[in-house]
Amino acid sequence: MSKKNKLVHPRNQIRKIIDRIYQRGMTTTSGGNISIIDEQGDIWVTPSAIDKGSLRASDIVCVKKDGTIIGKHKPSSEFPFHKAIYEERPDIKSVIHAHPPALVSFSIVRQIPNTNIISQAKHICGPIGYANYRLPGSDDLGDVIAEEFKKGYKAIIMENHGTVLGGSDLTDAFERFEALEFCARTILYGSQIGTPKYLSDADIDEFEAQATGVLPEVGVVDYPSDEVEKRLEICKIVQRSCQQGLMISSYGTVSMRWRNNDFLITPTDVNRWDMELDDIVQIKGGKREVGKTPSRATWMHQEIYNRNPEVNSIIMTQSPYLMAFGVTGSYLNVRTIPESWIFLQDINTVKYGVHFRKNNNSEIVNNCPTASIIENDSVIITGDKLLQTFDYLEVAEFSAKSIVLGNSLGEMVPINDNQVEDLREKFLT
Where is each Class II aldolase/adducin N-terminal domain found (predicted)? Predict the structure, then answer.
């Protein structure tokens, strides 16, 4: 279990995650359910027919190992398949079922999303199973789902229904759920502007083999007030990025220059939703804060700061509409509205792999542009103040969204060259 959840009651864990799922538009008022099985074998589960948008910890129901129900509501109507999964897979301690729109799209055309669309998703999601349609809430549905979990899957597409995922704890299950829905959205949006391209297993293995924590540890670490203030800024932007759908639990790096070329950066393998000040890693004199493992992209952030003195903050993330361009190779023309071009100029696309091959980094770190897209991986946004950099990210994502959605209406008509020159003279000279 995640250390941050160890002393959090199952009721509170469930309420927090259902809030995230609902607020991100990945379930409806009445749809979806979450459960946790505790060390005594009791199952804590969301109630039946209670508004997911205002669920309280006190609404969560406990179904005791002997079948006794404790709580003021009935357990979810889908409780039978939660119970069946736990009986079949003792390694699974939490289950999420929901109807997120992109995954439902796959379920109604009876397909499984290919998680090789982005670097880390295959590792997080694992192979994806498929459960044939059965009556919701029935023991029969529980049987077919349990049969899929019996094969070793932790993520299942439910035919004409939605998805169900398991994890070693609720954080693990939610990361898998969020990553799978992100893959589905990226494939759908990419299909509207081009043909999605997938990574090979060898590409993904190379990504996963990246060295972590290779920087030596610094001997003495101090935390003056200006350093702590930057930690707070980073945590706030990471949280905001997650809330806005611009970052997911399992991927996203934010850094800020501190003094000279020393900087602060988010760690690896820490859930982005739950990032705290003490998780942030200080990089001082090319060395990492003792006992912490910074992002695998730390070397690249370090080189950007070393070579680009005007850059004081960096956001590296996956947002669905920008990644639609990243997985298709389609050109993202930000000459959509004046603000987009003024903020972003042109957005470069670079080949997958340059972000972790240290001998092939010139496209990103030399004369670093405001925004770059790494194929099948991420978008990198740079700027001065961190809030400004976040604004650039939002503008880039909104521009990408407008182009993806507008594609069904007709061909994009960008701002022309004369209009761009007028903008350049007024705002950039």
Answer: 12-188, 232-404
Beta bridge partners of 70: 62
Residue 206: CA count within 13 A, CB half-sphere: 13
Same domain as 175, residue 58: yes
Pick from 93, 115, 122, 285: nearest CA to 187: 115
Q: Residue 261 pLDDT > 90, yes or no?
A: yes
pLDDT tens per residue across span 78-124:
999 999 999 999 999 999 999 999 999 999 999 999 999 998 899 99
Please check whether residue 95 lies inside any domain of the structure.
yes
CA 409 to chain CA centroid, Å, is: 29
Q: Where are the alpha helices (DSSP H) in 169-224?
A: 170-193, 201-208
The DSSP symbol for 53 reads G
CATH at 172: 3.40.225.10
CA distance 186 to 318: 10
**Spatial contact of 390 and 247, defined as CB atoms under 8 Å apart:** no
pTM above 0.90, yes or no: yes
Q: Give the other-Cβ count within 10 Å of 18's Cβ.
A: 23
**Token match 């850094």: residue?**
255
DSSP 57-115: GGG-EEE-TTS-EESSSPBPTTHHHHHHHHHH-TT--EEEEE--HHHHHHHHTT----G
- Does one domain contain both 225 and 185? no
Residue 263, amino acid? F
Report the length, in residues, of the chain.
429
Which residues in 331-412 belong to E strands, given as ranges? 348-350, 371-374, 378-383
Residues with Cβ within 8 Å of residue 95, at least 6 apart in sequence: 34, 35, 82, 85, 86, 164, 165, 166, 167, 173
> Would you list the DSSP string of 308-321?
-TT--EEEEE--HH
Are residues 269 and 409 both part of a single domain? yes
| Residue 294 contacts residue 372 (beta carbons within 8 Å) | no
Does residue 5 belong to any structural domain of this protein?
no
Total domains in the fold of the chain? 2
In three-state secondary structure terms, 133 is coil
Q: Residue 206 falls within a domain, yes or no?
A: no
